[in-house]
Design goal:
Structural class: mainly alpha
Number of helices: 2
Oligomer: single chain
Helix content: 55-70%
Shape: rod-shaped
Number of strands: 2
Strand order of the largest sheet: 1-2
């Protein structure tokens, strides 16, 4: 029953909570018939075991086991909800990050292109010749 890989954790959590509520009602109100009857469509289930019977002890044991499993099912359900939300928002965040990286790359490429295109003309005109007379090219 508690196989979280096969069953949806949210459904398991609802199942455990419903069973705990049913068992609580039966154990706390053993004399009231309305808590011992569970209607489901046209069929119903009636817990009619006497209070001192073995069946009653099984019901108490099952109730204790469900209460101990309740926190686990709640944790698994919360983790499942978080994972589903991350699957929905994860690709969107990755896409936004990639778009920012692409824009930064475009800007750096434009800056490099501007330096390459305008660089030699401005450098030659602004800097004086390093060797030889003015107007004569230097020989390496």
């Amino acid at each position: 029953m508690m196989d979280f890989k096969v069953h949806n954790p949210l459904k398991l959590e609802n199942c455990v909570n419903t069973l705990i509520q049913l068992f609580d009602n039966i154990l706390q109100n053993p004399e009231k018939q309305k808590y011992r009857k569970v209607n489901q469509m046209e069929k119903h289930w009636i817990f009619d075991a006497p209070k001192d019977s073995t069946t009653w002890q099984y019901l108490q044991f099952a109730h204790q086991q469900l209460q101990s499993a309740q926190s686990l099912t709640q944790q698994k359900a919360a983790r499942h909800v978080k994972e589903v939300e991350e699957r929905k928002t994860g690709p969107k965040k990755e896409r936004e990050l990639l778009l920012k990286q692409i824009e930064a790359d475009k800007a750096s490429r434009k800056d490099r292109y501007r330096l390459i295109v305008s660089g030699p003309h401005t450098l030659n005109a602004a800097s004086p010749p390093k060797s030889g007379e003015a107007g004569q090219p230097s020989v390496c």
